[in-house]
Design brief:
five-stranded antiparallel β-sheet; alpha+beta; Beta-lactam/transpept-like; three-stranded antiparallel β-sheet; Beta-lactamase; binds glutamine
């Protein structure tokens, strides 16, 4: 008999508690360096409507690049497939903040999940408005998805990234030179850093991801995106969600996932589960060390994979 999911979660929490190599907390955004590396959390929202949690599942953390999934969903809602004229859909094979491919590819970022791509997505989501309008829309969207109005932005994290985000300024200015960023760079980045500074717990994040396990439907019955769009977002998470470690993540875990430098990962098992894990220590690719290990363990114990029959 398969062990219950709650037993598997308890085992994972116990095993992660004993880990000696937890990776290194991101410090290029100074505010993120203050987070305790010993934290670990997991939450699983199932297609049956259950929510199971382990560890610090109610502690908020900076979702950072996990927000790129929600931003992409909003941008596709605004401009549809026209988005793909400005952003590619190929894994980059480079670091999340890399600039090297932009010159060769005329200011078109490889995919919406590397920083350059997410900055173009933020430009689309601005849509001629002030950043506070776009940020408000993003926050409302994430609150709706998670069914939780307490989700908020950590202004200290946003200010910390604004003060030190030289690489993103370079990326945005470079793409503006190709007219692929169309609003003033400071407005686009203002919107981008606030989206990254959204704080959520694993419980809230797992709930927010449910539409991607339910073929685009909110559990309340509303349609967030069409089934084909949900599948495409999942496909991009699988191929590009972990930057130059996306292949390794697909190999080890075998389900779509999107990581952030706050140490969170949102992972989707279509038709079965929306999973959030968090541990702030990162590996050399900027992905959560224990978060990845926990998902690998979970996939092994449950048999969940997009590469095998359900
Ligand atoms: N806000 C971060 C940045 O732009 C997000 C990066 C990440 O989570 N990988 O550098």
């Amino acid at each position: 008999m398969k062990p219950a999911l709650s037993t598997i979660i308890a085992d994972i929490v116990a095993q992660m508690g004993e880990a000696t190599d937890r990776g290194k907390v991101a410090d290029y955004i100074p505010e993120l360096a203050k987070v305790d590396p010993a934290r670990f959390a997991i939450a699983i929202a199932t297609a049956d409507g259950d929510l199971l949690t382990g560890g610090d599942a109610d502690t908020g953390f900076s979702i950072q690049s996990v927000s790129k999934v929600f931003a992409l969903t909003l941008a596709l809602g605004k401009v549809g497939d026209q988005l793909w004229e400005r952003v590619g859909r190929e894994p980059s094979g480079n670091a999340f903040n890399s600039i090297v491919q932009l010159e060769r590819e005329q200011g078109i970022p490889r995919n919406p999940f590397i920083n350059a791509g997410a900055i173009v997505v933020s430009d689309v989501n601005l849509g001629g408005h002030q950043p506070r309008v776009a940020i408000g829309e993003m926050l409302r969207f994430v609150r709706y998805l998670s069914g939780d109005d307490t989700v908020a932005i950590n202004e200290d994290v946003a200010a910390s990234e604004t003060a030190t985000g030289y690489r993103n300024m370079a990326l945005a200015n470079y793409m503006r030179a190709f007219s692929n960023v169309r609003h003033p760079v400071d407005l686009v980045l203002g919107s981008y850093v606030h989206q990254c500074a959204i704080e959520m717990s694993c419980r809230q994040l797992a709930l927010a991801g449910r539409y991607l396990m339910l073929d685009g439907r909110h559990p309340d019955g509303g349609r967030v995106v069409s089934p084909s769009r949900a599948r495409r977002i999942n496909a991009l998470m699988l191929t590009c969600g972990h930057y130059d470690a996306s292949g390794d993540f697909a190999f080890r875990v075998g389900i779509p996932g999107k990581s952030g430098v706050g140490g969170g990962i949102l992972a989707i098992v279509p038709g079965r589960a929306s999973i959030a894990v968090w541990s702030p220590g990162l590996n050399e690719n900027g992905n959560s060390c224990l978060g990845t290990q926990a998902l690998e363990l979970l996939a092994r114990r449950t048999g969940w994979s997009v590469f095998s029959p359900p």
